[in-house]
Amino acid sequence: LSATVPNVVAEITNSASRIAGPADEIARMFFIVFDRAPDKVLFHAAMDALRAGATIEEICAIALSLTGASLDTSLNLSNSQFVARLADAMWVVRPSGFSIQPFVDVLDDGTMTRAQLLAGALAHDDPFVRYTDKVDTALLYLAIANRQATVEELELSANTPELPLIRQIVSQSTPDLLSGAPYWTIAGPTLF
To answer: For the chain, where are the alpha helices, taking DSSP H only?
Structure first.
């Protein structure tokens, strides 16, 4: 990893897991299923499983089996309750004209599993989903600070441009990601 801000930004933003891979989808899964940012251990486990050949649907099935998840299978939710919770986990206000019934129907007739429906939901992103402005921040904290972003960090970082956010995360991270040299010395004073 090069120590200049533009290279850090480029490497994080253009990584294969972000462009053609499932990093964003896995992060969305944490916000939908666990109502929080991804943590280091489970996020890396999911990414390692995907690299080893697992599918997003299989990762979703595992997430749904974990106790404490809002869509947890041990809650014995009906298909209608499951879809309603999934929709509510995605949107503050459901889109106009949105009906859960078609999704309940595909679960009821066995056309899809809950894991498949969740995997399909992970591919959906629009400006009105609850977590749309949190995924990038959460992934930056994982990549730079090697930890889960807190609720406060997610809220404070909403709509913060990427470069100032990266500077903030680097300056707060320990151990020193830049081997003891002040960030502005390596990156150059013109970046600040």
So the answer is: 5-13, 16-19, 23-29, 40-51, 56-65, 79-90, 101-108, 114-122, 135-140, 151-157, 162-172, 183-187
For residue 113, the tally of other CB atoms under 10 A from its CB is 15
176 CB neighbour count, 10 Å cutoff = 12
| Per-residue model confidence as pLDDT tens digits over 168-188 | 888 887 555 555 544 444 444
Q: Chain centroid to CA 162: how far?
A: 16
- 28 contacts: CB under 8 Å, gap ≥ 6: 121, 122, 125, 131, 135
0.85 exceeded by pTM: no
Q: Is 188 left (phi over 0), alpha (psi -120 to 50) or beta?
A: left
Give kind and range of the element (H or E) at residue 95: none
Compute the distance between CA of residue 35 and CA of residue 174 in angstroms, rounded to an integer: 26
DSSP 3-state of 129: strand
